[in-house]
Amino acid sequence: MNTAQHVQDKITLHNGVAMPWLGLGVFKVEEGSELVDAVKSAVRHGYRSIDTAAIYANEKSVGEGIRQALLENPIAREELFVTSKVWNADLGYEATLAAYEASLQNLGLDYLDLYLIHWPVKGKYKEAWRALERLYRDGRVRAIGVSNFQIHHLEDLMQEAEIKPLINQVEFHPRLTQQELRRFCNEQGIQLEAWSPLMQGQLLDNPVIGEIASNYGKSAAQIILRWDLQHGVITIPKSTKAQRIIENASVFDFQLSTEDMERIDALNRNERVGPDPDNFDF
Fold first, then answer.
1. Based on the number of CB atoms within 10 Å of its own CB, is 36 exposed (0-12), middle (13-18) or buried (19 or more)?
2. Closest of 53, 1, 5 to residue 29, by C-alpha
3. pLDDT tens sequence across 169-181
4. Which residue range or ranges hold the NADP-dependent oxidoreductase domain (predicted)?
5. Tell me, what DSSP letter sits at residue 199?
6. Cross-strand bridge partners of residue 144
7. Contact assessment for residue 195 and residue 25, using Cβ atoms and an 8 Å cutoff
């Protein structure tokens, strides 16, 4: 069970790099001052992990938020853990290398802490992985991984990969508990990371979660995020509101009982809000 007790607590990935358990996600947040302020607020309130992607088209604002946050807070760039992802259109060897450079330029950074293949596009992700391995070996990125990979994608990739993915970032929430994938990743030493942990808000009115939240004096969102962490899953809830950013990080001062974990587990319906990786029109 995850025993993290602070927003800056980390897990050590299989290459020795430490990654925060909790981060700020910025999916569907447009470029502009709102996003810059959200990044600054997150850093101000203790977050050290920020997750973006090329397809989000907001790397410039994320980078500006990081730049301003570093000026306003007594921390160094090395204390932050910044993630981006290569989009499907760039999943070739040279194209992925170029996409990485473009993301760095947009973010205004010298390196990324984590770079992911965003989706397992058939026939393309192996060449992209070769590019990520090169970036990693060249010291351009501290960790590499994948996103939305099912077990068969991971098995296929690892047949030829020289470096095993460190992270698999997938849709994960009480309606999609990914039990078999979690078990496989645990066995392989691949750390699971959750996107859409709150099911884009659809679980916040769930009566079971609401009852548990009332018992702990916490919000529904805090209960779900705590459930993630106790399952050993890194999580990156999205918010642009300072109050919600603070609330999402206030999940380290309590622990869900085994019974309550099982009650939340039982909400699983294998239900997605995002695309099915096996039936996604790339």
1. buried
2. 53
3. 999 999 999 999 9
4. 33-268
5. G
6. 115
7. yes
Which position has the token pair 């194209």?
A: 95
Q: Which residues lie closer than 8 Å to 279 by C-beta, 6 or more apart?
A: none
| pLDDT, tens digit (0-9, with 9 covering 90-100), for 208-260 | 999 999 999 999 999 999 999 999 999 999 999 999 999 999 999 999 999 99
| Rg for the chain, CA atoms, rounded | 18
Contact 83, 57 (CB under 8 A): no
The confidence band for 105, taking pLDDT boundaries of 50, 70 and 90, is very high
Which helix or strand (DSSP H or E) is residue 156 part of?
Answer: helix 151-160
Number of H helices, E strands in the chain: 10, 10
Can you give the pTM of this predicted structure?
A: 0.97
Q: What amino acid is encoded at 147 in this protein?
A: S
pLDDT at 29 (0 to 100): 95
**CA separation (Å) from 28 to 35, 45, 51, 59?**
10, 22, 12, 12
Active centre residues (catalytic): 56
Confirm if 235 and 22 have CB atoms less than 8 A apart. Answer: yes
Per the listing, tokens 């769930």 go with 206
List pLDDT tens digits, range 112-158.
Answer: 999 999 999 999 999 999 999 999 999 999 999 999 999 999 999 99
* CB within 8 Å of 123: residues ≥ 6 apart: none
Which of 196, 161, 209 is CA-nearest to residue 27? 196
